[in-house]
Amino acid sequence: MKQVTMLDAADARLLIEFAIGAADMLSVPQNIAVVDASGALLAFHRMDGAKPYTGDFAIAKARTAAGLHAPTERLGEIALPGQRGFGLNTLRSGDVAILGGGVPVTVSGAVAGAIGISSGTVHQDADVANRAVQQFEIQAASAQTIG
Amino acid sequence: MKQVTMLDAADARLLIEFAIGAADMLSVPQNIAVVDASGALLAFHRMDGAKPYTGDFAIAKARTAAGLHAPTERLGEIALPGQRGFGLNTLRSGDVAILGGGVPVTVSGAVAGAIGISSGTVHQDADVANRAVQQFEIQAASAQTIG
Amino acid sequence: MKQVTMLDAADARLLIEFAIGAADMLSVPQNIAVVDASGALLAFHRMDGAKPYTGDFAIAKARTAAGLHAPTERLGEIALPGQRGFGLNTLRSGDVAILGGGVPVTVSGAVAGAIGISSGTVHQDADVANRAVQQFEIQAASAQTIG
Amino acid sequence: MKQVTMLDAADARLLIEFAIGAADMLSVPQNIAVVDASGALLAFHRMDGAKPYTGDFAIAKARTAAGLHAPTERLGEIALPGQRGFGLNTLRSGDVAILGGGVPVTVSGAVAGAIGISSGTVHQDADVANRAVQQFEIQAASAQTIG
Fold first, then answer.
1. Less Cβ around it within 10 Å: N or C end of chain D?
2. Any domain includes D4
3. Could you read off the pLDDT of A35-80 as tens digits, one per residue?
């Protein structure tokens, strides 16, 4: 038997709150998805003005980051023609996202879930995802120290 | 051109809050999905203890209720063998939900979106969905009267 | 080699015009799809007020009627539990429509295409589809007699 | 609540008419799809001689242009290997079109829908789509001024 550490509903709310804060700083409304370590959707929030069509992108980014234990931004490099990960993104019916905006959430050294952001430019999406996860991991670390 | 009224992010948050309240009353953790009038996902919240596997059921229920302007519970009756809607649920790759738990949200006589609930019994899912939508529609109506 | 008789763009326009007329008589806005003998989409028209979500149903109905050379209404009977067509509707990823509203268009004894109607009740959908095809076949027959 | 402006049936007919005109000028029969702001199909017309197989391409192009608020031609540049959007086109089961021929329709500054063209060369498809949308937007603007 093993124990898997997973984000819960409170964690997901916090991540979404942090992502909204980061998106507001850039003045870019975003789709925000949070998945647990198994890739199952925990929470989703579409900010007013975000493109509805790209909601699925946010989920795919979060799922990929959680599943591959890597930011989706880095996968885009590995999947370039001629690189060893070429073709990665067409697997799982094309649902493997290799655009920036998916970032795993690591707790005590293990991936406990991930966030996925979409609707801005890929650069903005990655920026919002990174900021939200950083803020979350700092808070989680300090909570562990205090608690 | 035509104008379509759709739920926004604040509406979605309210619906999720009402659904959490109704689920807590039944002591049944639930997956809660809110979609806009076009069926696009607006918000999702998985309560701690809800079954991750059924998250997609909540989204499918919400989408179906918004798309067909009917509670999914009623569709189950229409789709019985021998009824005129028999076979409805296999369309769209089987993503048409005909189990209780999807309820449209009507604003000023038009469907503006829907909620979908999953993880409890079908009866509990439908109960939570109905309560959340009733509470939302009462509040929306009173807001219009005051505003 | 063989020749396959197929509806063309002018036929499709005529079928859509006839379907709009029949839908207007019932005061029910409809999604109208016309496919050729191979099931490929020739024309689609969503009347104002018709449910966008069910657009795919109209296409599936038309495709099924053209492909199986039968009104979809009749398929619902064959696919009942215990009947020999039980399970028919889950084939092709569930895209085989067995609800009323799909009707083949027969020209000189051969299926040249089909129409599919959705958004009303199943009864209304079937009614509109039947009327449009009848009107079309009468016109086609008289054009052949005169021409 | 929010209001979303969407193309209606009359707008779709006009766009198809303009696209037929542009296709006739190039002597290239085309598949023409029009979707609303949510990506739902509003109208489809296959001109005689257009390739039936590519009908779905026209729908995917229109849906992508409406969903991403950008001409699909531009997406092809963003999705080049080494660019930030690399991998975009495999998302949503590969239904994100990044070939020319999908163009959003903007009304009063907001995307109200899109057109998608297929069957010619990609250059011809994009040309027809651009001409149809330009003609439509000019007419819509002058109608607003007069009305």
1. C
2. no
3. 999 999 999 999 999 999 999 999 999 999 999 999 999 999 999 9
pLDDT of residue B143: 79
Contacts of residue C126, defined as CB under 8 A and 6 or more positions apart, other chains included, come to C71, C73, C100, C101, C103, C117
User: How many domains are contained in chain C?
Assistant: 1
Which chain C residues touch D45 with a CB distance below 8 Å? 9, 12, 43
Q: Do C99 and B87 touch (CB under 8 A)?
A: yes
Q: Domain of D68: which CATH number?
A: 3.30.450.150
B1: in domain: no
D61 lies in some domain: yes
Q: Which domain holds residue B54?
A: 9-146
Q: Is residue D56 one of the residues assigned to a domain?
A: yes
From chain A, pick out residues whose CB is under 8 angstroms from the CB of D88.
99
Residues of chain C with Cβ-Cβ distance to D53 below 8 Å are 40
Whether the predicted pLDDT of B147 surpasses 60: no
Q: Rounded to an integer, what distance in angstroms lies between the CA atom of residue D104 and that of residue C83?
A: 48
- Tokens read off for C147: 């021409």
Helices (H) then strands (E): counts for chain D: 5, 5
Nearest CB to C99 within list B67, B84, B94: B84
What would the two tokens of residue D98 be? 């990044």
Q: Flag whether A touches D (3+ CB pairs, 8 A cutoff).
A: yes
Q: Rounded CA gap, D13 and D132, in Å? A: 11
Q: Scanning every residue of chain B, which has its alpha carbon at the shortest distance from the alpha carbon of A11?
A: B48
Question: D53-64 burial, b for 16+ CB within 10 Å, e for fewer?
Answer: ebbbbbbbbbbb
Model ipTM value = 0.95
Tell me the pLDDT tens digit for each residue of A92-130. Answer: 999 999 999 999 999 989 999 999 999 999 999 999 999
pTM, to two decimals: 0.96
Testing the interface with A: which of B41, B56, B95, B119 to mutate, by most A Cβ within 10 A? B41
Q: Measure Cα distances from A26 to A20, A48, A123 in Å.
A: 10, 14, 11
In Å, how far is D85's CA from the nearest CA of chain C? 29
3-class state of residue D82 by DSSP: coil
B4 chain-D contacts, CB cut-off 8 A: 3-6
Please tell me which of the candidates D8, D9, D48 has its beta carbon nearest to residue C8.
Answer: D48
